[in-house]
């Protein structure tokens, strides 16, 4: 039943809707402004009547402004709120995030693959303080019951599944992380013997099904999905419910993701079965096919499975016996199987979360269409004596009276336009916040309204447009296109701030300063488009902050999420095949000859100022040209940095002074502080300016083509480590190799060797010297460590230093902690200010020796990546731009990762780019191919040089 409406006795209207308050305020202003010339403020006064009508009109504005926001955002009848035009995103889009933790990845894999019953993720190598391959994980899969049955009949399906899963893991990995080939656990069949006494009034078939269900749950670690309604009912907040990866089959609580059981105990199984309602007692529990009947330790790569075959003697239907009053019961096996399936379907059902994400959530964004922009002229409400009524004045009234009515209409129109435009602005609230930029609608909105009150039409409506087609100015509101761009940029800044994002204008301001943009309007337009692009991709950027890349077989590159973000905020073109310019021959590593022709150098300055002049302010405005660009200027020998920066600056172009337009004109270009070259000769200053504009436009385009970067995720180069030997070395406070181990054939052998080193390093009797080199041997006499031959130290020093190092890494916790604190204090006190160089932390580095003898430090793959930029584009030469990029990268990359940023010169970039593109092409074709490994090794050597300080920025 609809609740009846009530009238509140003590209701107090808001100021904008309080007619009496508005009139009182209006009269006080009138008295303040015209008290000396206007003394009659009674109700019959025309001025008071006009004030009353406008106060009444303002209450309508206040009333409509107070509409619920969902009503103001509803633009048409029987329509939902347009989420795209209002930058509204569903909870799954703004609260969810790409997997970060191991549990996140487990949820995503279990949700994505019906073949997976459960899975577990662990680091591929267990490390303590060593610097080694980090971020590499091993995934173990326990197949679902249905998949287990298929694998028995079709074993090859396991290989196909693992291949599909490997591709999925690579596409969904995080930056600087990767997965070893996943392991599909193999079944280890167990036979459980049990005698169970049950109550006689219970359904034996149902009880047997429940026993088997409890047993399978214990062995197979199933994961239950929860519905949205269940989680809300439990008191979970929306941001907590949707945190973690987006799932399709429901929500998975963290409590469902239990660790893997590697030991089975009959005592635990007996406890679980004893809790079932109807079970009186259990006896004779034991594993039939195990040396120990009370427990089983599962071997690596296997899971415990029970045999539910009806007819085999080792099946659970034969080994688990049910008794009622001491009498053995025969269960209906087919009915038990049906009931068991029913238990599974009820307890481990799935849900369709996408329905909430798309349909239900979108359907909730409804409002009532109120048409707030509709305006009804206040002239309809004036007393008839004013002549503003529908019928107007009688024809017998004198012309002077008609003229006064028209004069009053014109006077009222000036005020009414504000009322009508206010409602137009309110009615276009959606357009004001619209980030799609489908049309330039402006940020101020006006409207025409009914002016045909009586017999007169005062407003000329035909010429009042509502766009910027008339001289880049909206005649309806007076807003210029430049004002719209500035204001719309601020609106999108606000929308981005809703999602914690900030779009800095510094890169674009530098483009404007360097003349990469022809005008402020182009600067604002491009920045506006970039903001709109970022805002439309908020769900992607917000969700994929930690994600590495989205690999697609249709593309020729690895699409890193970080690169997408940097391209968007820096304004780079996203589709490029290379960054090296190819429009000139190379002269040397840092110089080029641009174009051919006669080059004349101006070195005499006495008559230079008399003959030539700089461009005027008006002449320096060069628009972007649409036709295919080329430059006819011959600049001679010039560095590539000057070529890309100085050619953009109009101040570097001078033209000869002329008194007549028909005289010869020469254009000079300033290559350096003291060198000028003649680059153009002809007639008319206009032609000279066109030539200069063409050259500037050409190099604007070349700067755009060279702006870009390459991201190398170091862990993707790990293929070079295949078939390598294992070792480790100690590095001192200066990063130099202090001692190195022997080489081992496997990771396990190296781990054992490391333990032997820690044990031997604290015993002085295991130190020995042969010739000019010191060694550490094990108790068995095996030389496990050799010290660097260049060390000029005695045995006592080596023992003190190395034993202290061993205690630091593997000593008793209290001693190791104390030494670690001392290590930190040394870094704090010395650091980068030490007179011998940068003081570092002592480290133990894992090494690999490749088949060709190359020694690779595993620390290269320790959660590291590199971002490589060319250093010659004009913006890239600015230190403010570089600082902005490096700061932005640090803010976007998780704190535990190391992102190296390099700005490399033309010579090094010519080595790097072909090398990187060749590796990327080979990697996308076959990650483990010999050609891929060879190219990866080249790239590793190049990046190692940069990391050591060769060309790093």
Describe the structure.
With 953 residues, the chain is of the alpha+beta class. Among the domains are: 189-354, no CATH class; 591-706, no CATH class; 710-720 and 854-953, no CATH class; 725-849, Roll (PH-domain like). It has 30 helices and 31 strands. The strands form 9 sheets. It has a 7-stranded antiparallel beta sheet with strand order 25-26-27-24-23-28-29, with helices on one face. Strands 16-21-20-19-17 form a 5-stranded antiparallel beta sheet. Strands 1, 2, 3 and 4 form a 4-stranded mixed beta sheet that branches. A hairpin with a 2-residue loop joins strand 11 (320-324) and strand 12 (327-328). The longest helix has 29 residues, at 399-427. The two termini are 73 Å apart. The mean pLDDT is 86.
- Main structural class: alpha+beta
Instruction: Provide the helix percentage.
Output: 25-40%
Principal-axis shape equals flat
Oligomer: single chain
- Let me know the average pLDDT: 86
Number of contiguous helices: 30
Major sheet attributes: 7 strands, antiparallel
List low-pLDDT spans.
none
Radius of gyration: 40 Å
**Strand line-up of the largest beta sheet:** 25-26-27-24-23-28-29
- Roughly how many Å apart are the termini? 73 Å
Strand content: 15-25%
Q: How many extended strands?
A: 31
């Amino acid at each position: 039943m609809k609740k009846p409406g009530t009238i509140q006795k003590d209701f107090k209207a808001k100021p904008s809707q309080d007619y009496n308050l508005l009139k009182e305020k209006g009269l006080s202003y009138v008295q303040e402004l015209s008290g000396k010339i206007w003394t009659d403020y009674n109700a019959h006064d025309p001025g008071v009547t006009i004030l009353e009508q406008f106060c009444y009109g303002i209450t309508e504005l206040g009333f409509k402004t107070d509409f619920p926001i969902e009503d103001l955002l509803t633009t048409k009848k029987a329509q939902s709120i347009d989420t795209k035009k209002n930058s509204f995103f569903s909870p799954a889009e703004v609260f969810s995030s790409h997997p970060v933790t191991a549990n996140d990845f487990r949820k995503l894999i279990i949700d994505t693959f019906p073949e997976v019953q459960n899975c577990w993720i662990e680091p591929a190598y267990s490390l303590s303080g060593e610097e080694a391959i980090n971020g590499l994980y091993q995934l173990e899969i326990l197949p679902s019951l249905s998949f287990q049955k298929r694998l028995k009949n079709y074993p090859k399906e396991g290989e196909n599944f693992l291949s599909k899963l490997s591709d999925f893991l690579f596409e969904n990995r995080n930056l600087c992380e990767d997965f070893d080939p996943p392991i599909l656990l193999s079944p280890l069949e167990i036979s459980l013997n049990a005698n169970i006494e049950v109550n006689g009034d219970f359904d034996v078939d149902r009880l047997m099904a429940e026993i088997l269900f409890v047993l399978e749950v214990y062995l197979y670690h199933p994961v239950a999905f929860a519905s949205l309604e269940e989680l809300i009912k439990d008191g979970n907040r929306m941001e907590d419910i949707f945190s973690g990866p987006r799932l399709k089959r429901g929500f998975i609580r963290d409590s469902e993701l239990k660790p893997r059981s590697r030991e089975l105990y009959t005592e635990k199984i007996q406890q679980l079965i004893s809790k079932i309602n109807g079970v009186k007692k259990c006896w004779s529990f034991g594993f039939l096919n195990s040396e120990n009947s009370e427990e089983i330790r599962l071997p690596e790569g296997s899971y415990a499975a029970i045999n539910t075959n009806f007819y085999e003697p080792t099946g659970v239907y034969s080994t688990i016996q049910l008794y009622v009053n001491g009498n053995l019961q025969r269960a209906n096996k087919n009915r038990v199987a049906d009931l068991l399936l029913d238990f599974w379907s009820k307890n481990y059902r799935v849900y369709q979360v996408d329905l909430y994400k798309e349909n239900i959530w979108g359907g909730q964004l409804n409002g009532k269409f109120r048409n707030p922009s509709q305006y009804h002229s206040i002239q309809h409400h004036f007393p008839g004596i004013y002549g503003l009524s529908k019928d107007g004045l009688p024809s017998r009234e004198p012309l002077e009276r008609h003229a006064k009515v028209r004069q009053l209409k014109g006077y009222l129109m000036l005020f009414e336009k504000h009322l009508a435009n206010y409602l137009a602005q309110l009615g276009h609230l959606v357009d004001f916040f619209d980030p799609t930029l489908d049309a330039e609608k402006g940020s101020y909105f006006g409207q025409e309204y009914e002016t045909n009150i009586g017999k007169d039409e005062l407003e000329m409506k035909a010429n009042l447009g509502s766009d910027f087609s008339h001289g880049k100015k909206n005649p309806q509101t007076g807003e210029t296109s430049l004002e719209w761009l500035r204001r719309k940029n601020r609106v999108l800044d606000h929308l981005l701030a809703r999602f914690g994002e900030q779009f800095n204008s510094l890169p674009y301001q530098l483009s404007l300063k360097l003349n990469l943009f022809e005008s402020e309007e182009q600067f604002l337009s491009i920045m506006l488009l970039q903001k709109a692009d970022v805002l439309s991709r908020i769900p992607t950027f917000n969700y994929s902050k930690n994600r590495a890349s989205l690999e697609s077989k249709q593309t020729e590159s690895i699409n890193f999420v970080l690169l997408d973000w940097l391209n968007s905020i820096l304004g780079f073109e996203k589709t490029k095949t290379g960054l090296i310019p190819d429009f000139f021959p190379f002269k040397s590593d840092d110089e080029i000859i641009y174009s051919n022709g006669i080059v004349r150098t101006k070195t005499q300055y006495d008559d230079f100022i008399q003959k030539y002049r700089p461009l005027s302010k008006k002449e320096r405005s060069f628009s972007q040209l649409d036709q295919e660009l080329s430059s006819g200027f011959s600049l001679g020998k010039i560095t590539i940095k000057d070529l890309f920066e100085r050619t953009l600056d109009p101040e570097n172009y001078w033209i000869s002074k002329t008194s007549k337009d028909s005289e010869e004109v020469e254009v000079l270009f300033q290559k350096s502080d003291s060198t000028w070259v003649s680059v153009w000769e002809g007639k008319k200053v206009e032609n000279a300016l066109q030539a200069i504009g063409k050259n500037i436009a050409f190099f604007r385009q070349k700067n755009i083509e060279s702006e870009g970067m390459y991201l190398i995720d170091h862990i993707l180069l790990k293929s070079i480590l295949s078939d390598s030997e294992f070792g480790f070395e100690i590095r001192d406070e200066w990063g130099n190799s202090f001692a190195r181990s022997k080489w081992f054939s496997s990771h396990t052998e190296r781990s054992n060797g490391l333990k032997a080193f820690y044990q031997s390093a604290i015993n002085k009797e295991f130190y020995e010297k042969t010739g000019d080199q010191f060694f550490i041997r094990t108790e068995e006499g095996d030389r496990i460590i050799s010290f660097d031959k260049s060390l000029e130290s005695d045995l006592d020093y080596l023992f003190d230093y190395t034993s202290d190092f061993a205690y630091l890494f593997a000593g008793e916790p209290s001693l190791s902690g104390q030494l670690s604190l001392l290590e930190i204090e040394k870094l704090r006190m010395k650091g980068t200010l030490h007179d011998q160089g940068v003081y570092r932390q002592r480290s133990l580095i894992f090494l690999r020796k490749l088949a060709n003898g190359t020694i690779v430090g595993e620390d290269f793959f320790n959660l590291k990546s590199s971002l490589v930029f060319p250093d010659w584009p004009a913006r890239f030469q600015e230190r403010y731009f570089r600082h902005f990029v490096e700061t932005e990268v640090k803010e976007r990359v998780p704190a535990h990762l190391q992102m190296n940023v390099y700005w490399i010169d033309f010579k090094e970039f010519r080595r790097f780019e072909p090398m990187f593109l060749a590796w990327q092409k080979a990697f996308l074709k076959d990650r483990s191919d010999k050609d891929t490994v060879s190219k990866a090794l080249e790239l590793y050597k190049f990046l190692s040089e940069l990391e050591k300080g060769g060309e790093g920025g």
